[in-house]
Amino acid sequence: CIAAFNSPVSCTLSGSVDAVEAVQRELAEAFRQRNIFLHVLNVPAAYHSPSMDMILGELEEQIEPLEKQKGEIEVISTLTGVAASENDFARGKFWARHTREPVAFTQAIQTAARGRENVVFVEISPHRALQRSIKETLGKGTKVFSSLQTDAEYQTLFTLVGNLFELGFNPNWQHFYNGYQSVPVAIPRYQFDRQKLMGILDIHQRANQRGVSASHPLIYGINSDNVEFGCLVSQDTTPYLYEHKNNGVALVPGAFYVELGLASVMSSSRPKVPLSTCQLSISFSAPCVLTQNSQVLSIKLSPQKATTTFEVLSSSNAVYAAGQVTKGLEGAVEESSISFQAIYRRCKSVISREELYEALSQVGFQYGPIFRQLSDVHYCQELKEAITSIKVNEETIRDMYSYCIHPVLLDCFLQMTAVLTSRTLQSRAGFPSGIGSLVVLRPLEEEMMIYMRMSKSAGNCLEVCGCFVDKHGSVLAELKRVAITFMKEVSSRENEYLFENKWKEVSLSQTIGHLGFKPRVLVFADKFGIAEQLKSYLHPASRYVMYEDWECLVEGDTQNKMRAEVKDYDEILFLWGIQKLNEDFPGKAVDQMAKCCEAYRQVVVALREKTSRCSIRVITYRTTERYVDHLNCGFALYGMTRTCIVEVPEITFQLIDLSSSTSLDISVLADVLVKYNAGDYSEVCISQGRIYILFQKAALKELQKTVHAWISSMDMKLFRHLSDIPVYEPQKQLFKQNAVYVVAGGLTGLGFETVKFIAENGGGCIAILSRRIPSSEKQEELRALQQQYKGSKVVSVQCDVASTSDVEKAFQSIANTFVGTPIKGVFQSAVALHDGRLEVLKLADFHKVLSPKVAGTLNLHRATRGQELDYFVCYSSVTSFLGNATQTNYAAANSFLDVFCLYRRNCGLSGQAINWG
């Protein structure tokens, strides 16, 4: 039965264990395409269900009698969903009903908010639990703050008070600091520079007040002369923007900049002018990537007589878009109406809505439901024209008339260009680069049509024109010279050197091989409870080995211990990689990772010595793609396992990654262990009850042996044989003159080639980190390089990147050398090699190879915290995903780099691993 109505889209079910598990599986299978949220609650009994009937009478008797007191504030009951009466709380039956009847949380929240403006909810609980339900009930913009959070109590309370203070709540400061008195801070003794700056807090306060002070839902004035405006972009203020993605990355659409520019100019105009007499032109300069954090865009105006120019900038003054608005133009459009009936007669080809969005998806664009508003498109090949109808969805209708032209609707026009491009420049990724003219004659309507025609096609650019028209053919808005710029096309031959990992969902019905009996396994158990949860699914004779038992042995005894553990088991489950690492202690992270790799090596060697045919399944936690949110030893086990597959073909290996430790995912993991052969799929990911397998698109030649020999010898003659790896990249300046680029390991090999590449492509300041002082020959090469590229200055700093203190000193030296110049790029090419077969490798060999790549990368990551890097590039190897016999430690180090770059990207930072091969 339903135990709680959490929100209009969420509820809680309660019942017996078997019933709950059955309905959970049915829902996961029935809605597998919709990615619904399913989670089993850890409770001792089935509350709010018939299971409670037997205790209701006793509960009512035990509670009564209760003494009624006079209430001071209104209390809304989650039993009834309305305000409770004075007598309710004094009756035992009222409290007993709470145990049996469903929780009316949705109705209670609606009652609390009804008739109130600017409602703020403060959740008083040990951790955040109700925020999602409240926002689903009242809208994403609803403000819900936590009051407590485990292990961060003070910080959470301070954040709560700060948030409330921003919204106008004035706390009793004397009471706030009571019991927390301390010695006052010293009076500042430094010289103030007396420069007035607007702090980010002030900006956010103004942004939060914009609904009161401004007539536009996006912009607010920053200064009194109306030449600068701000716009707060966040999940709360502009949630629809996060549905506009390219290759999975949320980007601000160009249509949004159009609205910001047009609205800012209209707000600043004195005297006011009609929107229909204004003409906008705009060019888009750079993409704005949306992160989970809020960001403030500024719009700066330069008014002239009839024209006002504008720029849309980031908080660091990077220009996203620039344009101008010309005012006072009468009759600025070419046609006031069109014969859409004649156009439909000409456009006989029909592209379905699904085909259109599939074409957009093929070139990297993904849209959420708010942006997917186009209908079937009718197209004429001869005249290169297209027309479609659009019915605006309810969410957009609510505020479309508050905008000059709603960004979602203008983006629908830009989406239609996919029809023209797919018929002319197939499979080309194109981005809007500018609009020559936009005139909005009348407000857009809830039902209308979009017409588009190609006006020009040259090289990598396509221009279209078109309009929004009403049901009678009258033009609502006209667009001309809308430019779409295409990315450089990569030849099929070049693609032979590229690959792409894809995860494909499979169902349990596709499994083969096993009969479904409980396997008798040897489990190298983790400390976080995953192995413990698996116990009920495994054979009672399974054995569990803890990491601490192995770690406490002296090095010589660990291998003997491992030989003794490996007996006649069906399979081995290795969960010791589920160890969280602290990025603030790089040396300790290397120690833990090296020990984990050494333990794994000993398992493989012990099995090999016994000529055992059992399989090894390595289970990791949140180490794949979008799930990576912390550092753990599993980063290295991926590369190590892929090499073991090559070096020890007689043993079957499988990698399984869990995205959560919920009972649903654990039960699916058990299904994989029981119903799948380890050899069926080498890599598996389990997320929200779904099973995904890995496969690679395109081909990659086996060049890892060549590149390994090359790295070992560092023979520079080999560089002339390397092909440039092509990328989808428009022609632009890759590096900046007034920026520092740090190259670790930049005196030899790939590192020195990187230094030359940066200088050749405009990099003004290059800092090389190397353990060695450059030789006289290398110093001569550096001088020649600076002479060849006059604008570049190259310095070499002696530094072992694996040493935290060395890196800190090096970055201080860089700051002193290039005073006031920001660091914009880091290239990590540090490498150490110590090859050997599994039987001869030791703990020290793992430590030696892991140190420069793991500790070095973490030190560079820490040293550049708080800096907006354009590049954080790690030089990895094809060995990390293809494997190469005798290089398990090298593969482990490189797969760490691969996953660490995913971790940085998931944190909203730049990160790119290049697998050389």
Automatic annotation (TrEMBL):
Organism superkingdom = Eukaryota
What Gene3D superfamilies has UniProt attached to this entry? 3.30.70.3290, Malonyl-Coenzyme A Acyl Carrier Protein, domain 2, NAD(P)-binding Rossmann-like Domain, Polyketide synthase dehydratase
Q: Which GO terms describe its biological process?
A: monocarboxylic acid metabolic process
Q: Indicate the residues that form the catalytic site.
A: H244, D411
The protein's name is: SOL1 synthase
Q: InterPro entries, from UniProt?
A: Ac_transferase_dom_sf (IPR001227), Acyl_transferase_dom (IPR014043), Acyl_Trfase/lysoPLipase (IPR016035), KR_dom (IPR057326), NAD(P)-bd_dom_sf (IPR036291), PKS_dehydratase_sf (IPR042104), PKS_DH (IPR020807), PKS_DH_C (IPR049551)
Establish whether keyword Transferase is in the entry: yes
Which residues lie within the region annotated C-terminal hotdog fold? 348-493
GO molecular function terms noted in the UniProt entry: transferase activity
Among PANTHER family, the record links this protein to: CARRIER DOMAIN-CONTAINING PROTEIN, POLYKETIDE SYNTHASE 44-RELATED
Where do the segments described as N-terminal hotdog fold lie? 204-332
- The gene name reads Sol1
All copies of the PKS/mFAS DH domain together span 204-493
Alphabetically ordered keywords of this record:
Transferase
